[in-house]
Amino acid sequence: MAGAFAVGRGTAHAGPDGAATAGDVRQAAYAFRGAHQAGIVTPAQDRLHFAAFDVLTDDREELVSLLQRWTLASEQMTAGEPAGDGAVGGDVRLPPDDTGEALDLPASGLTVTFGFGPSLFRDADGRDRFAIADRQPEALRDLPHFPGDVLDPARSGGDLCVQACADDPQVAVHAIRNLARIGFGTVAVRWSQLGFGRTSTTSTSQSTPRNLFGFKDGTANVKAEESAALDEHVWVGSGDDPRADWLAGGSYLVARRINMTIEVWDRQPLGDQEMFVGRTKGAGAPLSGGEEHTAPDFDMPGSNDQPVIPVDAHVRVVHPGQHGGVRMLRRGYNFVDGSDALGGLDAGLFFIAYVRDPATHFVPVQLAMSKSDALVEYLKFTGSALFAVPPGVGPGEHVGQALFT
Prior knowledge:
- It comes from Nocardioides cavernae.
- By secondary structure, the protein is α+β, with helices and mostly antiparallel strands.
- It is 19% helix and 19% strand.
- It has one domain (30-88, 97-404).
């Protein structure tokens, strides 16, 4: 995990619970270069701007040039500096390199993480535009259509993705805005998503946050300090796929836009809400007893000859014990995108998970959830995408360089 916790331009200080205090997190800066890309095991920041791009060119060298320019700009911005030659002080007759909205703002823990979608290797017409189809990972295939999916094609897929996370929303938006500007003519934004209030913890120093249903989310998440679990469940191994050796040390990013029927959920009795989730709403403890991190007892009997944790409770359906022990590193965010045509909140969870192999670590869990989870009645899956996230960027390299050499 070299580079994942490298800090410059000041270090965030810990509060009573070990997490960085609100006044200090904006001074944190994470190194862009390292063994793994930042923004995966980095302590989850509070804000997200995620964008998927379509590549407009068929020119391999033009794509590589863009990745080089994106690498340089990302290294500058994650250090708290403007992109290119900056927003001010240049030739007044020309547009500045940087848009300027992050001037005077610190790095705010900004991380920029890149991924490559299946369509980068072969487009919808089967074309190998960049002579990389023979290096497409076997696991990098479009996710299946799950029961209950109502996917919007305009919110799904993409040739490339960029995940920008920060503890200041303006810093995260600035990063995506400037990368999109740099890519003008070579790429176009396919879809994007703003997020707030992280819905998972990626470090033992962080407390468990809550989703918009009001429940703690991500209690059993893989943490940065669990190096063995990261190797088993998150990082792609050197022998996982011989044709995709360039991905060793990287991961797969699953993105799912999940709308919550907030108003319907809010009318459910507290007891029913807790039965659907399988945990108490306050402490987040399993209904079988204990505290948040107590292992659920799925065999404990309840009333009417039924287990105290219902068979369709979320915590039971998605528990690693039901899926051969596989785990994910979740890094999702809440979102509210205004109101829908009926005046209800267009809100929910932008689910992000990093896994070693989506076919074994995500698809079976999502299938079980779609078929058996009581929570699905209050969810609508409207966007879906999968990306291969290359390993970290070494000195003098650009992101994804091993794929193109």
